[in-house]
Amino acid sequence: MIGSSSVRDTLNLGRRIAGLSRPGDIVCLFGGLGSGKTVLTQGIAWGLGVSKEEVISPTFVLLRQYQDARLPLYHFDLYRLKGDNDVLALGYEEYLYGSGISVIEWASRLKYLLPKQYLEVELLIKGPKQRSIKLHAHGSRYRQLLKELYAHIRH
C-alpha cells in the first residue's frame, strides 16, 4: 500500500507507472467518486509526455485518446456505462491490446469483460487530501512492473 498526502503525490505515482509502461499495458482503476482516479491518469499522461491539464475525465464519452505521447494513452471512464454492449461497441479490446497504454476508470463495471492480466490500482479516501493506494498485479507482466515500481518508490 502506498500513501498519498497530496495531488502531487498521486500525480508522481502516475508518472512512475508511465515510465515503466510498455505498449499493451492495462491499468484498471477502482475507487469511489473523488478518490483520485483521474488525477492518477493525469500523472500517467504526464509521464508519457501529455500535458496533465489536457487530461480530463471522459465521463460523457467512454473513451479519450491521446496520441501525441511516448506511447498512445487510451483513457476509458466507465462511470456512465449503461451496459456491456456499450463497451463491446467501442471495440475496446483493440485498444487494450494495441500499441498504447489503456487506463480504465471504474473498471469494476467491466465485470466479466475485465482483462485476465492488468495492473489493479485501488484508491481509497482517508481524508481531505490523503489517499491509500493499493496496487495488485494480475499476471506476470504486472508482477514485474510492480517490482520495478516499488524499487523506484524506495529510492
| Uncertain ranges | none
Number of helices: 5
Number of domains: 1
Q: Number of DSSP strands?
A: 7
Task: Tell me the name of the CATH homologous superfamily.
Answer: P-loop containing nucleotide triphosphate hydrolases
What is the N-to-C order of secondary-structure elements (H for helix, E for strand)? EHEHEEHHEEEH
Q: Specify the helix fraction band.
A: 25-40%
CATH architecture assignment name: 3-Layer(aba) Sandwich
Task: Characterize the structure shown.
With 155 residues, this protein is an alpha/beta fold. The protein has one domain (2-102, 127-145): 3-Layer(aba) Sandwich (Rossmann fold). Helix content is 34%, strand content 25%. It has a 7-stranded mixed sheet. Strand 3 and strand 4 form a beta hairpin. Helix 1 (7-20) packs across helix 5. The longest helix has 15 residues, at 140-154. The mean pLDDT is 89.
Short description:
The chain is an alpha/beta fold and 155 residues long. 34% of the residues lie in helices and 25% in strands. It has a single domain, classed as Rossmann fold, CATH 3.40.50.300.
